[in-house]
Each structure stands twice: as structure tokens, then as C-alpha cells.
Amino acid sequence: MAATDQSHKPSPTSLFQVYLRLRPPPSPLVQLTQQSLYPLLAPSERYLTVEAPGKESQDGMPTHITIHPPSDSRKRAVEKFAFTKVFEEQAEQIDIFRGTGVVPLIEGVLGEGRDGLLATLGVTGSGKSHTILGSKSQRGLTQLSLDLLYRSLDTQTLHSANHPSLIASLNATDASEAQIFSASGFLDNVYGDCLQEPSRSRAPTPMMVGNPSRSSLKVPHSSLKVHHSTGPRSQWSILSLDAGTPSPEETDSSVVKEDKAASVPNAEQTPNHMSSLPSQLSVWKLPIPRMTRKQAKVRFGDNLQDPAFTPSVPKRKLPQRPSALPQFPDISDLAFSVEPNAEYAILVSMYEVYNDRIFDLLSVPSNQKDLRRRHLLFKSTEASPDRKVVAGLRKVVCGSYEEALIVLETGLMERRVAGTGSNSVSSRSHGFFCVEVKRRPRGGLSNSWTGSQLTVVDLAGSERARNAKTAGATLAEAGKINESLMYLGQCLQMQSDSNDGTKPTLVPFRQCKLTELLFSNSFPSSSHHHATHTTHHRNAQKAIMIVTADPLNEFNATSQILRYSALAREVTVPRIPSVSIVEMAFSEIARLNEEVEILNVKLTEQEERRREAEENWQKAEEKAEQIEMEVREECWGEMERRTAEERRRWMGAWGEEADRNDEHLDRKLEILTQGIQIHEDAIDQDTRTTELENENEALRRKLEALERDLQCRSPTKAPRKPQLSSPSKDYGPAALGTALSKFNGMSLIDAAAYKAQSPGKTPGKKMRKLTARKWDLMDENEMDAFENHY
Ligand SMILES: Nc1ncnc2c1ncn2[C@@H]1O[C@H](COP(=O)(O)OP(=O)(O)OP(=O)(O)O)[C@@H](O)[C@H]1O
């Protein structure tokens, strides 16, 4: 025999106390009706036996179990596992509550200021939710813990209705950037529509307590019971109609039908303990007086940004009323005494870890269709630099057990559950339910809060894809669940390894969100408060793990969970010295095979999606091409139309321009013609002048010849004075002067006309030129004669 570890008592370094709870087989009726979930196994197939209590056992409770691999299994090793205690199939909820360390855990939260963590771990369908949340007839550890807390605090619990500044005061000291609501504010916010305005609601509220005239349900007074009232300013109380289904005379039947319908949670989301119709009608107390803006600010905190803000009231189905929820087991004999000079506030918050992300379960989507939720961060905040918290959660101040229960039910309706081949209502996320107990001196400073927290965790179950018959998103969820549980297993394994004291505890808890949330507060820390300059020492949390197992469930999955969660393990049938390694290798191979299976399914899905995307892409491309062609054609047509228009416009303009040019040219030609005329006239004058000069010259020569001739004929005759011009003939200076003056007069007239036609030209120059030419034509004598003559 090779024993890996004989000790099973938690060492002082143990992070968890680990309890094992075996679930009973389903009743014959359930087995018959749900054979897919509970295949009937022969008694010989039971592979798990509980060892008789040994010397070391507490309360005479067993602490060891042995598992024998089924005959068809490849594994032959018989393994023995040790736990803090083992609860067998017949154990009731109350046994678990009293027998595990839950009660001391609550005592630590109330008295020592030590955080407590209670979690369940097991294969899907092994009874985790049953243990933590209870069933139709039995309360779970969560409800029992809440009951014990409120019983112990009793009248020292503060109600936000009686202390208007409570929310603001809690807000001021909250380190997690939370949105803190009063219970009534939160419930108005979530169910307001169902509660306030029956006429607008699909399911009319059966009775309006504050306004009987609007009620459509007649209820005899005797049948009403007030279950809870939060004082004179209360806006909430819960009434129940204990008369069962009202008689037709008393009830508007349509209203009853509607109310029942409204009470039935969504089948997919219904936790098993809420799956049946309520046998009684619930009536939620109304009316809710209109709030002043100040009151609303206190109640809704930072959500109140719009001045016209009225709480958004998406239509929500009412959860079961607290009085319709199970009241058993009874723990009225249990209560802790608390500090008498302190007053307490209890804040409830809920979140789930889904696909390794944290989602607030109390943050109801404002739009029912908008199911996308914002995930939250687990981080250190300004007010909590050395300790991580889930930042931005909604927290509800619950003044009573009933209020806390309604909030719990509301959060559970948000949690992801789905029907799988292994469990008809299987949790698809790890659910966290947190109860913060805040304490301050009675009548002391309003912001001097201290406190600790109880966290109850309902882990999602590990499952084999083959057994669970899941596909698509549910299969992917299973992959994430198994992965996070594998990391949790590694952390727990480290704990069991370190129990023998040979190895230091080094827990690799930062591998995923789940282990971070479970383990990061397992170690003591000191936080320094900047505002007060004080250092607050925080104790390490106390943690309890309840492992649930179904001895008739699949061997591999169950043995794997037991293997890593047990405080100690013995292998009793070694085949080879390294058998445990081989075993682990086999189980690892099995796990990897499973992952491969999951990945194959995912791959097929992705391929299918890619194919669809490609087809869509192809279609989109074709469509785009067609649109492009249409646009091109349209543009082309438009361009042609515009070009033609432009051409027309241009041709018109061109024609006009050509006309203008023609006209201009015509005018120029006209001017030119006139200029030529003048020029021609000028030429005629010149010619005439030349002719006259020639003629004058000829005459002069003729005269000279005649004079010579005369002198030769009578030499006694005194020579006659040369005559410049013959009086008979008008070739003398007088005639020339007349001709010139004529010519000048003509030139002046023409110059004036020319000036009128071409204003830029000066006729003076021409005249001077012409004058100069006249002078040029005369010799000195003629010039003298000309001057004497004038
Ligand atoms: N101890 C028990 N006594 C009676 N019924 C039980 C017990 N444990 C579990 N059951 C029943 O077995 C069924 C499955 O249990 P439960 O939903 O608690 O499993 P689970 O481990 O939470 O599964 P999952 O991980 O899929 O959420 C439920 O109908 C529950 O009532």
C-alpha cells in the first residue's frame, strides 16, 4: 500500500474545511419520469463506500470514503479520501447547517469581524444548489444563515425607512464604489411596474391596499395577514392571502389567472425550488407615495442624474413571496448575542461569474430585450488599495430577513441556469451571494462603520460533455466551468499537499476569476485608511467547502472532484510505484479528450458560422457591385445631362461672343474704312501737290525759256523783272496759297472728323507734318513771296 497522506485534519494553514455530502438517490417516481437524468443503476454499481468513523472523528461522524472503480473501468486503484466530515445520504439540511462549520462562520462574521466563505463544489446534479439554496420544502444554508444573522441582530438592525441618512452614510464609507439602495427603493426599481400601476401592467395587481376602489380583487379581511412591516414610513410590506385559491364570488378569475402567470418565473431561469406555481396569491403592499427629489436621491444615489428621473421600472415577474417560501428547518433556538452598544446594517449583493466574467445579479437590465450586461471588475479601489473588491456592485440594505429573501429571489431569477442532460435546472455560472454586516457604535459617528462579510457560493457543476448532451453556447459554458474548476482543483490540491507541512502553501489562485474571488481574501492583510490615518488589520477569512457527490453518478467525474477536494488521499491498490502519476495522467488524458471534444464542436460551429459569414459576404459584395453599377449609371446619365446642358450654355455664350466680336470687328472695319478714306484723300492731296509742283516747275522752266528767248530777240529792251507768277495763269504763289489753304481747311475738317472717330489720336501732329511738307515744297524765294503775300 502506498499512502500519500494519512492525515486529514486541517492544518492551521488550511484554506478550507472540506465536508462531503452524499446525495440520496432520486425517488422512484423521479427516476421513472426522468430516466435520462437518473439512469437506474444496479446496487452493485455503487462505487463509493463510507468508512466507519475512526478514532480521530469528531461527533462520531465518518471522515473517510473509499471509491472502487467500476469493473469496466481501466483504473484498478482503490482510493481512500479524507474529509473534515462526511454526511451520508440521509443527512438533512439542518444536519448540514449545524454539523458543518457554518454556525461558527456566522459567529465569526458577527463577533470577530472575520469574513466567512461558504461554497459548494461537485459534479452537476450532485446537490450543490439543493444544499445552498434549498428545495420546495426545505430552506438551504443561505436562508438559514440569513435567518441566524437577523435573529442575532434582532432590533439592533437599522432600517433605511427609519434612518433616512443610512444609505448616504453607508455610501460614504463603502470601498467598492457600490450603488447602495434601500430594499424598498430596489424593489420599486425592479418590480415597480407590477406594483404601482396595475392598469399599465400586463398582470394587474390583485389588490391595492391603500386604494381599495382601484382593486379588482375582493378579499375578505379575515384572510389577510401582514407578514412584515418596516414601520410607519414603510413603503413595503408583504401580505399574503392564506385562503388558497379564492372563490369565484370573491375573485375576478381573470385577475387570478394573470397573477399566477406573473408569478411563474421563466422556465429557463427558474431555480428548482421555485419551479411550481404558488398555491397562494401574493399581494405586495401599495401605495408607494411619490418621492421628493431628495428622497429619491437618497434611495437611488448616483443613478439619479436626470432631474425628471423616476425609477426605471421594467416589467418583472414577481418572485415568490417570502411567506410562500419554505420555513423549515426551524432554527428559532439559535441566536448569537452581539455587542449591545452597536447598531447594524445588513447589505446584500449578488453576482455571478459567467465565462470568467463577473456580472451583477441585482442590476436588472433597464430594457428586457437588452440582455447584454456590463461585467464588473475585481480590483483594488482608491478606498481599498490593498484588497480587491468587486467594484460597482449594487448593494441593497435589507432591514429584515424577508427583505433579504426577496432580494435573494430576485437575484436568483437573473442567474443563468439551463436544462442539460445531467440536470434539468443546471447552474451555468458560479453564483455569489454576499451579506455584509456593518457595525457602528449606537448613536455614534454616522460614518464610523466597520464590518465583515459572509459570502455564499453556489459553484456551477463540472460535467462531461458526453453526459450533459450540451451543445453550442451551453457546451462552451461547460468548457469555461470545467476550466475554472480545474484551477480551483489545483488550488485545493496545493492545500492538501501542504497539509503534511513539508511544502509551503503557495496557492496559484490568480489563474482565473473564480479562484481569485475565492482565495484572494484568504490571507490576512492590513489596510491603511488615508482619511483617518489608521491602519486596519483584516483577519483572514474562514472558509468552508461542502463537496457534494452522487455515489451513483459517473465514476470518473466524481472521483476527479473527490481527488482534488479531499484533505488527504490514500491509494490502496498500487500496481506500479508511480501508479498515482499514471492515474493522474489517465485522468488528464480523459480531461484533454473531453476538451478536444468540446473544441471540435466549437470548431464545427465556428466553421459553420464562417461559412455563413462568407456567404453573407459574397451576397453583400454582389449587392455592392449591383449598387455600384446603378450608381455609376446614374452618375453617367447625370454627367451626360449636365455636359449637354453645359455645352448648350457654352454654345450660346460662344455665339453671343462671336456676334459681339463681329459687331466689334464691323465697327473697327468701319473706322478703318473711314481712316483709309482719309488716307486716300491725303494721298490725293499729295499727288495733287506733286502735280502742281511739277506743273509749277514746268511753267517756271517755260517762263525762263521765254525770258531767254525775249532777251535774245531785243537786246535794248530792258530786261523784264522776273515774274514769279503769270497773272493770266494761276500758277503763282497766290494760286498755290489758295490751294494750300484749301488743303489746310480740308485737313482741319478731316482731322476733326478723325478725332471724333478715334479719340486717342491727335490730328495736330499730322497737320504739323503736312505743314512741314508744304514748307519743304517751296524754295527760299517762293517762301519769301508766300510770306509777303500773307
Ligand atoms: N440531498 C438531497 N436530497 C434530496 N434531493 C436532492 C438532494 N441533493 C440534490 N437533490 C435533487 O437533485 C436535483 C439536482 O440537484 P441540484 O440542482 O442541487 O444539483 P447541482 O449540483 O446544483 O447541479 P448543477 O451544478 O447542474 O447546478 C434536484 O432536483 C435536487 O432537488
From TrEMBL:
The keyword Coiled coil applies. Gene3D superfamilies: Kinesin motor domain. Residues 15-571 form the Kinesin motor domain. One of its GO terms (cellular component) is nucleus. ATP binds at G122, V123, T124, G125, S126, G127, K128, S129. The keyword Coiled coil applies. Residues 197-278, 302-324, 708-733 are annotated as: Disordered. It holds the Pfam family Kinesin. It comes from the Eukaryota. Residues 582-630 form a coiled coil. Keywords: ATP-binding, Coiled coil, Microtubule, Motor protein, Nucleotide-binding. GO terms for biological process: microtubule-based movement. GO terms for molecular function: ATP binding; ATP hydrolysis activity; microtubule binding; microtubule motor activity. Residues 266-278 have a biased composition (Polar residues). Belongs to the TRAFAC class myosin-kinesin ATPase superfamily. Kinesin family. PANTHER family: KINESIN-LIKE PROTEIN SUBITO (PTHR24115:SF1008), KINESIN-RELATED (PTHR24115). This is Kinesin-like protein. The lineage of its organism: Eukaryota, Fungi, Dikarya, Ascomycota, Pezizomycotina.
